[in-house]
Specification:
The chain is of the alpha/beta class and 133 residues long. The chain has one domain: Flavodoxin domain (Rossmann fold, 3-Layer(aba) Sandwich). The protein has four helices and six strands. Strand 4, helix 4 and strand 5 form a beta-alpha-beta unit. The radius of gyration is 15 Å and the shape is globular. The two termini are 22 Å apart. The mean pLDDT is 94.
Length: 133
Amino acid sequence: ILFGSQTGTCLEIARNLAAEAVEKGFNATCASLNELGFAALSAARTPVLIVISSSTGDGDPPDNAAAFFVAMRRKPPAGAPPPPPAPLAGVQYTVLGLGDSNYTRFMYVPRSIKGRLAELGAKEFYGCVEADE
């Protein structure tokens, strides 16, 4: 269970969800998006991925998700060999986005994460949810 949290709400939800999963016999861990890092996502390491994130300011990633977000959006350098067509095939995910619809870029970070995971071949196992303040 990965989180991007500026004020602590996503962190609290992620910790509670991880604790509940462990109580039910699942092997669950909780970390910030930056702690794991985008490059570490794979079917072997993260076969089931739950992301809980907010946007901060007007669509910026939380501090503990900024490096992940930048790496996730980075395109391969010109001349680099093309990546495999679906590098995240075998990863199942869902995203819970927290936000405030008073901002122009409401849910920008959670929606970007969801979209990029799908582009890279991951499959949604549970419908992604957005919660407005």
